[in-house]
């Protein structure tokens, strides 16, 4: 059986020199991320200020929720690949998440609402991006940049979320912010349903593949080991990375001088810096990597990811020095500088890893393999939640220094995986 070809309409049509199906997936994911980050931006503040949870309790709830958000895709990916198919999984998952966001309006239903969002996300998250690769032929030169464009869509939603949901929640009431997140999820669902004709057909299930098209055992082993190693490194990295929505948010509230003249910058606005920088920096990095590729000098995926982890380590090390010298009253520009370095590092690691998992997915297991990428986020968020409990028992400077060490460890481990990943990618380019 040959590689699944995209529909004729998709192959002929372009959206910014990309298939229009990418725009559908881009906008669907954008609104899903708007809803997720809109709720997440408010969650720690809501628990500590409205529900009066202690910091350690709130940090654990935050960490467990975000980790569960990335654990349920493991089950959802299997259900999608074996039974539902990716399109139905996206629609059902988006509907369940919409209900969960609106349930956040009730304080007594907090845990039930979080569970509903995580459950719906289990079907949605692996099934949506796993459709991107099927929009392109194997030799399509646009295929490599597709996930960078998709990642911009993710961050447009992440940019709007704190500005809309954060501002509504902080100034007018938490439930207004949560309601806006629910409306965003419904918009994503409507866009996906209306744009279904531009999406690729369902892939055949693994059990439906002819024996001749199944991957040789040795090639499968190389892929699994390479992806397992990358996933474990990303898990360590996220222990530090996910502090941006947890302890970094708390530092913006208590350790930062947010005055800009007579105006005090709302603490939730700083969460918009990261996605804003992703939108502006992504084209610059893609152009740089394209020029390097033309000269045959583009770094390998694992080297890019290792570089990203080390840059994030530098960002946390900078905060450690700033907090130690500022005595708990650092100027807000230091946090802006942190997010600049943090975002550069992120762009070297997260979209690169996402695309790597998509390219190396065995036939019939697209959603399951994508779910494995998000499983690394599950473990990383559990680690981040546990590390976040140290915030109230360590000095802030010492905590930031520890996060720099965690990110640097991930970078060192990723550097060791360069050769195995290159071998797995080389096998992937050989036709079955």
Characterization of this structure:
The chain has 432 residues and is an all-alpha fold. The protein has a single domain, classed as Growth Hormone, Chain: A. The protein contains 15 helices and 4 strands. The protein has a two-stranded parallel ribbon with strand order 1-4. It has a two-stranded antiparallel sheet with strand order 2-3. Helix 11 packs antiparallel against helix 14. The termini are close together. The N terminus is likely disordered. It holds the Pfam family PTR2. InterPro entries: Dipep/tripep_permease, MFS_dom, MFS_trans_sf, MFS_Transporters, POT_fam, PTR2_symporter_CS. It is found in: Cell membrane; Membrane. GO terms for molecular function: peptide transmembrane transporter activity.
Q: Could you write a compact summary of the structure shown?
A:
The chain is mostly helical and 432 residues long. 73% of the residues lie in helices and 2% in strands.
Report how far the terminal alpha carbons are from each other. Answer: 10 Å
H-E order: HHHHHHHHHEEEHHEHHHH
- What is the second-level CATH architecture? Up-down Bundle
CATH topology: Growth Hormone, Chain: A
Show unreliable segments: 1-13
Membrane topology: Multi-pass membrane protein
Main location: membrane
Keywords: Cell membrane, Membrane, Peptide transport, Protein transport, Transmembrane, Transmembrane helix, Transport
Protein name: Peptide MFS transporter
């Amino acid at each position: 059986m040959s590689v699944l070809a995209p529909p004729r309409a998709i192959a002929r049509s372009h959206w910014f020199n990309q298939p229009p199906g990418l725009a559908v997936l881009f906008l669907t994911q954008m609104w899903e991320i708007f809803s997720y980050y809109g709720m997440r931006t408010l969650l720690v503040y809501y628990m500590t200020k409205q529900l009066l949870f202690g910091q350690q309790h709130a940090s654990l709830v935050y960490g467990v929720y975000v980790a569960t958000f990335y654990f349920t895709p493991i089950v959802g990916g299997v259900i999608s690949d074996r039974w539902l198919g990716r399109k139905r999984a996206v629609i059902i998952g988006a509907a369940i998440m919409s209900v969960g966001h609106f349930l956040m309006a009730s304080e007594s239903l907090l845990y039930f609402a979080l569970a509903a969002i995580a459950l719906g996300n289990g079907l949605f998250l692996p099934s949506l991006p796993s459709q991107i690769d099927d929009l392109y032929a194997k030799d399509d030169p646009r295929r490599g940049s597709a996930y960078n464009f998709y990642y911009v869509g993710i961050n447009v939603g992440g940019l709007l979320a704190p500005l809309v949901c954060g501002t509504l929640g902080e100034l007018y009431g938490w439930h207004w912010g949560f309601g806006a997140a629910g409306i965003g999820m419904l918009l994503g669902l409507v866009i996906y349903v209306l744009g279904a004709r531009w999406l690729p057909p369902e892939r055949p299930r693994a059990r439906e593949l002819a024996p001749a098209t199944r991957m040789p055992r040795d090639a499968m082993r190389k892929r699994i080991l390479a992806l397992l190693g990358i996933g474990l490194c990303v898990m360590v990295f996220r222990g530090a990375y996910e502090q941006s929505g947890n302890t970094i948010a708390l530092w913006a509230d208590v350790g930062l001088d947010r005055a800009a003249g007579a105006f005090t910058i709302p603490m939730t606005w700083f969460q918009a810096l990261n996605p804003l920088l992703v939108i502006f920096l992504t084209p610059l990095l893609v152009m740089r990597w394209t020029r390097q590729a033309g000269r045959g000098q583009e770094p390998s995926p694992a080297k890019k990811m290792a570089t990203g982890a080390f840059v994030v380590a530098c960002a946390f090390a900078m905060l450690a020095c700033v907090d130690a010298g500022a005595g708990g009253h650092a100027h807000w520009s230091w946090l802006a500088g942190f997010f600049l370095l943090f975002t550069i590092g992120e762009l070297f690691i997260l979209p690169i890893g996402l695309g790597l998992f998509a390219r190396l997915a065995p036939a019939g297991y697209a959603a399951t393999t994508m779910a494995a990428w998000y499983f690394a986020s599950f473990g990383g968020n559990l680690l981040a939640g546990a590390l976040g409990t140290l915030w109230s028992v360590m000095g802030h400077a010492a905590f930031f220094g520890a996060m720099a060490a965690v990110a640097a460890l991930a970078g060192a481990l990723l550097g060791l995986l360069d050769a195995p990943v290159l071998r797995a990618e080389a096998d992937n380019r050989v036709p079955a």
